[in-house]
Amino acid sequence: MEQYEKVTEVTDTAAKVTRIAAVVTAAGASVAAPTGLSALGVALGVTSAPLIVTVAPVVIGVAGAATALAAAASLYSRYKRKRS
């Protein structure tokens, strides 16, 4: 197995794991998101949003970046296989 094929496998696995983490985080954030008067308190800065609500966009961004990296590695691997 060539080095680029190993990189493709690892990045694909990492992308899958981060996508699962993003889905779980998004689900938790949607459940924990403040509503009603607590949402008003967060908007006014009186209280803070739950940590999962704050972290969710970061986790989703990491998942997107990992997926893009996996796609790039896959395309490079395909290019190298056809070239050899």
Key structural traits:
rod-shaped; 3 helices; 84 residues
Structure description:
This protein is mainly alpha-helical. It is 86% helix and 0% strand. The protein has 3 helices and no strands. It has helices at residues 3-32, 36-44, 51-83. Helix 1 (3-32) runs antiparallel to helix 3. The radius of gyration is 19 Å and the shape is rod-shaped. The model has no long low-confidence stretch (mean pLDDT 94).
Topology:
Blueprint: H1 3-32, H2 36-44, H3 51-83
Helix pairs in contact: 1-3
Structural class: mainly alpha
Radius of gyration: 19 Å
Distance between the amino and carboxyl termini: 13 Å
Residue share in helices?
A: over 70%
Order of helices and strands: HHH
Number of helices: 3
User: Total strand count, please?
Assistant: 0
Could you list the spans in which at least 5 consecutive residues all have pLDDT below 50?
none
Shape: rod-shaped
Summed over residues and divided by their number, the pLDDT gives a mean of 94
- Range of strand content: under 5%
Major sheet size, sense and barrel closure: none
Gist?
With 84 residues, the chain is an all-alpha fold. It has helices spanning 3-32, 36-44, 51-83.
